[in-house]
Amino acid sequence: MTVHLRTIPLVLVATGAALTLTACGGGSDNDAAAPSSVGMSPATTNPGSGSPKGGGSSSGSHTGTAATKPGGKEATGDSYAYKHPCTAEQLTVSAKSLGSSPNQYVISVTNHGKAACGLSSYYPRVDLGSKNSADRSHNIHPLVPGGLGGAPAVPVHAGRTVYAVLDTDPQGAKGSNGGFDEVNVLADKSFPNADTHNFPLAYGAVVVQHPKLGLYRSSVGDAVASMRTADTNDS
C-alpha cells in the first residue's frame, strides 16, 4: 500500500505538468496571432476610395497598411491615382472669384479621402446659365486648351487640391452678365449631372460669348496660365 500511495502522486504531478505545458503552448500561439488579426482590420474596413461612405476592400488594403508594409506608399502616388478613379463623394468642390480679377473664378477640387484618386478629365465641365431657367440648352460653355493627347487623368493626392480657372470676360469687353448669374461645375465629366455644383456669379460680373477655362493644375498661378491658352470649344 505504501508503494501505491507514492506512485499516484507522481502520475498526477506528471499529468499536471503536461497540462501546464500544453496550456502555456496555447497561450503563446494566441499571442502570436493577435498582432496579425489586428493588422488585417484596416485592410478590410478602410474604404478603398477614401470616401467616408465606404468602398471596396481591395484598395483599402493599400490604405490600411501604407505605414507598415512595403509598397503601401502606392496609395499616395500618381500610379495609384490613375488606377483608382475619384468618386464625387470624396471630393469637395468650390468656385470663388479671384480677388485680383472679379471675372476670374478659381474652381477648387479637394480630395478629402485617405488615398489618392484620379479625375478622368483634364478639366471640370463648366457652363454659365441662369439659376431660374429650366432650359439649359442656351447655357454658355467656355473655350478650353486644345491639343490634348493621351489618356485623360489628373491625380489628386489625399488632402490635396487641384485648381482650374474660369474667365468670364477674357478680352475685357466691359459689358454685362447677359442674364447669366450662375456657374455650374461638374468636377469630372464622367460624373452624373446630379453631382453638378452651382455657384452664383459675383455682382457686376461680365459674361461674354466665349469665356475661357484652363486645365486642372496644382497651383492657382499655373491654372491662370493654362486658362489663357484656351482656344477650343468644349463639347
TrEMBL record:
Keywords per UniProt: Signal
Domain DUF4232, chain residue ranges per copy: 86-180
Domain of life: Bacteria
Signal peptide coordinates: 1-25
A Pfam family that the UniProt record links to this protein: DUF4232
Region (Disordered): 33-78
InterPro entries, A to Z: DUF4232
Regions that span the bilayer: none
Full protein name: DUF4232 domain-containing protein
Species, as recorded: Streptomyces noboritoensis
